[in-house]
Give the backbone structure.
Amino acid sequence: MGSDRAVPSFPELFAPVFVILLLAIGLPSNVISFIVWTKGKESKSLGCSMYFRLLTLSDAFSLLVCFTWVNFQYYVPHNLLFFFIFFSPSLSTWLILCMSIERYMSLIYPFSFRPAGARIRALICFVSLILILTGINSHVFIYDRIYFSIWYEIASLWTLCIIPFVLINLTNILILIKLCKMRQQRLGQSRRPNPVTSFTKIAITSCVLQTISIVPLTIMLLAIFDYLDKDILSMSGIDTIISSTLYLNNCFNVFIYYINSSIFRSDFKNIFCCCCRRNTIHQSNATTNTAV
């Protein structure tokens, strides 16, 4: 007798692999970023360095949640798993918004928002966001079925992803306007890289990447509500792949920082290139000693 077991579709087979790829790229990216923001001579002295450290930790945690959801969802209590599925991506999103507001306020009120107090403000924002998001998503422990509601997913998509990123873009537009005015006032002065300009580039790049990562999930939700053809959801596993694209924004931190920040780039080279040179010297010395 032939087996009645259905042959898994390509999306169903590819979904765990796709998430493993996200984890393989994202975890090293966030670890490297955390090392540079913590150990970099100039990077760690920036006012926003603590925000970036917390952001790398939040992004790494989000990727671990995604990996657990796809590969081990039957071994974790559903209430707890869905709590972190809604909680983790939104924590990173709102943390970027807090960073943008911090940088804008430091330009408008430089004496009130000094870099020396930025670390404490970052920790306060981080703890406050954890408490607020815990309260918002605590319903999954009270009601059994509400976290499966498609309406709640749409509300989460707008209030925890789309709206904060619109606010991030608006805040950084205001920062750019302020920077242009400041540049006009100090023409002919030092051309030293401005960390606020670098931060604005990083924030805008993150917004673009987040927008790209949200599009597939938005299309899936429109298809569920009959605004688009449901055939795109007919294959098993395609919904998992589409939902996992939301975590793309958590994977490429080190590339975003390296491209947009000359300070991060310099510290990255000093930390890792120096380590490579030291290892090469040690190996050459060991080879010489062995030969002798």
Observations:
- The chain has one domain: 10-184+192-291.
- DSSP finds nine helices and no strands in the chain.
